[in-house]
Every structure is written in structure tokens, then in C-alpha cells.
Amino acid sequence: MPRSTLSQQIQKAIGHPGLKDFLKIVESNLLVNCPIVKQNILAAEDIFGPELGGLKGKTVRAGSKQVKISYPTTSTPAAYK
Q1: What digits encode the pLDDT tens for the residues 6-18?
Q2: What's the DSSP call for residue 14?
């Protein structure tokens, strides 16, 4: 199995951290017996693009614009006043 693919699987397994966080985790040797290195992670990012599971979880939906309703102004006839 190529290490770029393995790096994606490990990223999914540890909860979809962002690229910077994942690089810190691997560089700090927080994963015991992890065969991937920084270059493998960056290669996977170049080949496959950003990790979609984490991207979808971190993306927020833009709010919709408020609908403004304008009521026509009518004047009441003098006979009803």
C-alpha cells in the first residue's frame, strides 16, 4: 500500500484532523509505530486534495439574507375618518 494512501487512512482513523494538526501529530511522534512522515502527508494532499471528511465537518453554511416585505401604503378616504 502506498504511504500516501496510508496517511489518508490514518488521518481518518484519528478523527479527521486538519493538515497542520496532522503534521504536528506525526512530527511529534504521537502515533506509536507510525510509518508515515511529513512528505507522505504532503504527497497525499497534492495527489488526493484536502481530506473531505474533515473539510465537510469544518465548513459552515452561510446564512440566508433576510426577506424584507414592503406593504403598499394606502390612504383611507375622508368619509371613513
Answers
A1: 999 999 999 999 9
A2: T
